[in-house]
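Q: Given only this backbone (208 positions), what sequence would you predict?
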């Protein structure tokens, strides 16, 4: 996220990779864009890298990827505790807050066969606000971002993850092929960060 008016980027992944970029004498600058535009910019070499799950890309074979950096779970979240054990297979026409331009293979059967309705939002923050304002019944988000966003809310509320609809995923650093020579050092750095506990410590710093 952007830290106030300073335009300084803060977050788990920027914090983790700052020592690597410094070690490799690489100057880094973060650019905010929607996923589709960022993906196309990466193919064309207009940007050098992005943090993403390879499964989200339309042409993953055109790029190179680090080993997974951060694992998380995607959940359907509700504001109602009784929804945690909801049987989605018998539900119909639920409004689901989703991210625009995102594809959700785990939810597609519910959209196509049970009349679930996508309510697209421009960001995870917008998804949460829509859920809190009852513009949707459930929001599909990753657990790390959902917990962090709830910490920023003044409104007292609790998110309840549903047992169904769970998807396990991970984020890698996706690179333009011109950075192929950097990949061994990058993967070695990621392994060191994971073995030392630095990844988990970074997560805990942002999730009190």
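A: Predicted residues:
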């Amino acid at each position: 996220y952007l830290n106030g008016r300073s335009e300084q980027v803060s977050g788990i992944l920027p914090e983790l990779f700052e020592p690597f970029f410094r070690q490799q004498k690489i100057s880094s600058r973060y650019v905010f864009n929607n996923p589709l535009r960022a993906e196309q910019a990466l193919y064309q070499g207009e940007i050098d890298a992005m943090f993403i799950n390879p499964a989200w890309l339309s042409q993953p074979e055109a790029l190179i990827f680090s080993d997974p950096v951060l694992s998380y779970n995607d959940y359907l979240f509700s504001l109602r505790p009784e929804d945690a054990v909801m049987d989605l297979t018998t539900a119909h026409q639920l409004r689901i807050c989703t991210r625009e331009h995102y594809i959700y293979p785990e939810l597609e059967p519910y959209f196509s066969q049970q009349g679930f309705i996508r309510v697209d939002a421009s960001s995870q923050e917008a998804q949460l606000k829509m859920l809190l304002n009852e513009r949707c019944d459930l929001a599909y988000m990753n657990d790390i971002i959902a917990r962090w966003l709830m910490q920023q809310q003044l409104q007292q509320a609790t998110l309840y993850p549903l047992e169904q609809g769970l998807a396990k995923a991970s984020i890698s650093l996706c690179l333009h092929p011109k950075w192929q020579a950097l990949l061994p050092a990058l993967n070695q750095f990621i392994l060191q960060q994971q073995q030392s506990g630095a990844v988990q410590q970074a997560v805990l710093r942002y999730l009190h």
